[in-house]
Amino acid sequence: MATFKAIRIDKADKGTTAQLTQFDEAELMEGDVTVRVEYSTLNYKDGLALTGKAPVVRRFPMIAGIDFAGTVESSSHPQWKAGDKVVCTGWGMGETHLGAYAEKARVKGDWLVALPQGLSARDAMAIGTAGFTAMLSVLALEKHGLSPKSGPVVVTGAAGGVGSVAIAVLSRLGYHVIASTGRASEADYLKSLGAAEVIDRNELSGPAKPLAKERWAGGVDSVGSTTLANLLSMTKYGGAIAACGLAAGMDLPASVAPFILRGVCLLGIDSVMCPIEPRKAAWQRLASDLDRTKLSEITTEITLDEVLEWGAKILAGQVRGRIVVKIV
Q1: Which residue ranges form the domains of the chain, and what is each CATH number?
Q2: In this protein, which residues make up the domain named Enoyl reductase (ER) (predicted)?
Q3: Average of pLDDT values for 189-199?
């Protein structure tokens, strides 16, 4: 295969351009494993890259897409051989390294995780970076000492990819989950995932008090900004919030009061450069702790041809749950 289909992003006079085109295999970047990509997924960061709304892409030309699942085609890495089923998320794919919206990808073997037993390539991308990030958040909360006995947990951006998976996992583990969303019409959907309560995001959108009434023992936040500041001010003594997103902004207009008067912890979650051992642990937990029926309910499948259209939709808040991209 001298060329293959890919979504290519190029630098333009004003911003960037993105189009589905043929990409020359000779232009693939260095790596010791070449993978035949079967599925990818659409994340908020992908939407930013595809539309050029934020400077996500750091080199040009770029193949968009920050995660994939597929089959090893060739390998000079000692851990991988042709035919192995693998998952790859993060590591700068779609930003500094040619990414996943393509029929082929060449990456470092050290970036790959074996597809967990019981998960298909499609399942893995129904989870994707968003679900992987949600599980890293749950693991961080558990490491902090949180358990269902600690009290309710809150999930912001609840109808999005991270939020949907976080609710499904936390509810299955026995937590009382409070889902925060700006889309009241999604209340039934969120309750079907396991949310015990659904609150309007406006409850968390005003200026944060240094300390507000204690409402939850912990939470998973993919929104940032004022929302995160309010979450912290409402967290119970000794609780923790796992912060993994910035949909509302990178600022944090908070005070130190929750930290020094209630012993609250803010847990930073990074899925891009996360070391390999936590990656393996998170994928194993996803294979065991995520209800596959619920995963199916939150997933919509699109083709590579539809990615550009859906990239704009995810930024407009018109996407619910997870979007799987069928590559081949």
Answers
A1: 3-115+293-326 (3.90.180.10), 129-268 (3.40.50.720)
A2: 15-325
A3: 96
